[in-house]
Design a protein that fits this description.
Number of strands: 5
Order of helices and strands: HHHHHEHHEEEEH
Helix content: 25-40%
Number of helices: 8
Structural class: alpha+beta
Largest sheet: 3 strands, antiparallel
Strand content: 15-25%
Strand order of the largest sheet: 1-3-2
Radius of gyration: 26 Å
Length: 212
């Protein structure tokens, strides 16, 4: 849009490819869609006796025409496939592993002794987050913030047959936000047994005389 001139309007379509040696993480997005757009490839380990070639860039310049034709051939195949990359089983497995590494809510829901999945059960968001904190503490994992935890649960609710609603009855008998289809098995105010050991969790807002 030039100064004093009528602006031009139109639709633009752009495709972006980004490459990284590490997995791509989002600050707040915990949805499957964020990871579905990633292709996580496995590379071969560097052979022990291999020597790096300092002149590799110059050698590639000498073959730039062949490299361009090779890349253009791949682009034609991609366009013929409606710009969808063909994924191998290993690639899909890598993406699932990265998703779980960046979001331990999946492992929490799949764990034993913390929650139970069943259609006629329910739990408040607060109760679930407290159980999740216990899980992270016992497994030495960093815990998400409460809001990020709830958003992560909402993002994967269809996968675990959960339903987010604001009509869950908590332990005090009040209607609060929570999830249908899940039950909390551990509480912050009870003793949790693990093998021969026992650990008692007490909320921070409990009066000192009650702690004793």
């Amino acid at each position: 849009e030039r100064k004093g001139k009528q602006s031009y309007q139109g639709w633009m379509c752009a495709r972006l490819l980004a490459f990284s040696n590490g997995d791509l993480q989002a600050l707040f997005d915990r949805s499957d869609g964020f990871y579905r757009r990633q292709l996580v490839l496995t590379t071969k380990e560097k052979p022990a006796g291999r020597m790096d070639d300092p002149d590799l860039a110059e050698k590639m310049k000498a073959e730039v025409e062949g490299i361009l034709l090779w890349a253009f051939e791949g682009l034609q195949r991609l366009a013929a496939n409606n710009f969808k990359f063909t994924e191998s089983e290993r690639t899909r497995g890598n993406r699932e592993a990265v998703k779980r590494d960046n979001n331990n809510v999946y492992d929490f829901l799949d764990s034993d002794g913390y929650v139970r999945l069943k259609a006629d059960l329910s739990a408040s968001s607060k109760e679930l987050y407290e159980a999740y904190q216990i899980y992270c503490t016992e497994n030495n994992l960093p815990a998400l913030k409460p809001r990020s935890f709830s958003e992560a649960l909402i993002a994967c609710q269809s996968r675990y047959n959960l339903e987010y609603c604001n009509n869950v009855t908590n332990a005090a008998g009040r209607r609060v936000r929570g999830f249908l289809g899940i039950e909390v098995l551990v509480r912050n105010h009870i003793s949790v047994f693990s093998g021969d050991s026992m650990r008692t969790y007490v909320p921070e807002d409990v009066p000192e005389e009650w702690r004793r």
